[in-house]
Amino acid sequence: MRRILVATLSLGMLSGCGLMDMASEARANLNKTGNAVHLQVLTVALQQMLAPVNTETLTPPVRMFPYGNTFSKEATAHEITETFHTFLVDVKQGGQTEKSNPTAEDMRLKSRKISLAAGGVIASFVPHEKLETIIEEQIYRGGRYEDTAYVLLLTRYTYLRDFFFVSVVDKSERVNLDSVRKAAEYFTEIKYIAQLSFVDRIKLHVPQFIPVVNETNPEAAENAFMDLDITVSPTEYKLLARRALRRFEREPALKDQLYNTEEGQRLLAIFKAE
Amino acid sequence: MKNIRFVFVALIMTAFSWGSVVELQGTPTDIDVSGTPMKVFPQATLTTPTGTTNLKLTGYGIRQKAVAFVHVNVYLATSYVDESIALNTDSPVDSLKNAKGRVILLDMLRTMTAQDIRTAFEEALDVNGVDVNSKEVQSLFSQFTGDLYAGDRIVVASYPTGEGTIETLILELPKKTLSESGNLLGLDFWKIWFGEPVDELMGELKAKLTGAAKP
Fold first, then answer.
1. How far apart are CA A85 and CA A110, in angstroms?
2. Taking the CB of residue B180, how many other CB atoms lie within 10 A of it?
């Protein structure tokens, strides 16, 4: 009887171990599959962003937007930072020519602009929680990509202001309450960056990136390039807020909704807060 | 019949060109803006109800706008001011106060909607503390409609009416002319280009228009 009991227990334990092994193997396989799918989503998104058909127009790079959105939603904060860093290296690398008067082709201007646009698109679509993680890991805790994180913030600020906010406030024929909600969302992100304590460090310097325009001597200007220097103005958001309010108040029906409903008042307060 | 129609159209077009309050004079300088040949005249005259004012060229330059990381050419601005005025490059708005006439030509280098121009003007006025909701400014902007194409010209002219500090501001658009008078209205609009620059690139244009920097 005792032998039978021991044998049964041993069998049970053995089969239990087998079940556990199978379960952990299945979990590992699932993780592997999940990871493969994750990487595939990121790869396809990047491939599509950089596909020639999607890089024809860069101001704004609208065709990159859907893929940039997918990438930023799927990628982890660390993956976003690393990918952005790679693009930034390409942007700053410039031409390899030894010529004293390099041409735009020598400077690889087009491909560097594509890299900057791709980085900008990714930065614009990063969900706010992931952005906070990037700031925490790279800036507050001094990560390997601290410099990159500042540029990521700068490109996010610039794109949200010049393409997203503008598309609602300046480029829309009609503005309704839903447009105001969207504008408020972009505005909140813009203001968030402008009010960061380290805003003076949020800047971008790219040597020889902008072709020079010279009205009186176009031939001399043909192969001349300026540096690109961009910073974030900590007070510019106030101008943007006033611009938005002027636009909203131009629509009588919307003005009524904004001033006479609870949600309207709440949205107005976002733009009116200092 | 075809000839009559042609003459009729030509007459209308001539009437439009005659309608301008500004006449450009002197031997022009040929310039090139991204492959587009353009001319800059050294003098101009501004015709107002009270007479004609001789104007001199103070400067010209391209208004560039930074859109994300790209600089786009928006318009070529050419500024003329009453020839008796010595423009102070440090505080040009102050020296423009007593001008009997001011003209800025804006030659469009890209297509823009009236809404785009309006927004840009409003923002620059706002930066300079001008009340963009004032009756006069709103009256002008509400009539500012239609798209502007590369090659179109906007003539902005202003002059004192002779009644205190009231000034008339004229905006000649390709298809219509807007006019409004108000307290220092012209000077307020001149702050767009000569006042506090709305951005760094406008600051560069300001330096060119005042003659502080070469075009």
1. 18
2. 20
Please state, in angstroms and rounded to a whole number, the distance separating the CA atoms of residues B44 and A102: 41
Alpha carbons B112 and B205: distance in angstroms, whole number:
19
Condensed to tens digits (0 to 9), the pLDDT of residues B185-208 reads 999 999 999 999 999 899 999 999
Element (H, E) at B6: helix B2-18
Task: Mark out chain A residues that contact chain B at CB-CB < 8 A.
Answer: 58-60, 113, 116-117, 120, 158-159, 162-163, 170-171, 204, 209-210, 213, 215-216, 218, 228, 230, 239, 242-243, 246-247
Pairing of strands B22-25, B70-82: unpaired
How many whole angstroms from its chain centre is CA A17?
47
The strand ranges marked E within chain A are 203-211, 225-231
- All residues of chain B having their beta carbon less than 8 Å from the beta carbon of residue A247 are 119
Is the model's pTM score more than 0.95? no
Kindly report, residue by residue over B148-190, the tens digit of the pLDDT: 999 999 999 999 998 889 999 999 999 899 999 999 999 999 9
The contacts of residue A81 (CB under 8 Å, 6+ apart) are A134, A137, A138, A143, A145, A148, A149, A152
Q: Report cis status (omega within 30 of 0) of the bond before A60.
A: yes
Full set of structural domains in chain B with CATH: 21-210 (3.50.70.10)
Q: Distance between CA A139 and CA A143 in Å, rounded?
A: 6
Give the span between the Cα atoms of A36 and A50, in whole angstroms: 21
Q: How far apart are CA B54 and CA B41, in angstroms?
A: 13
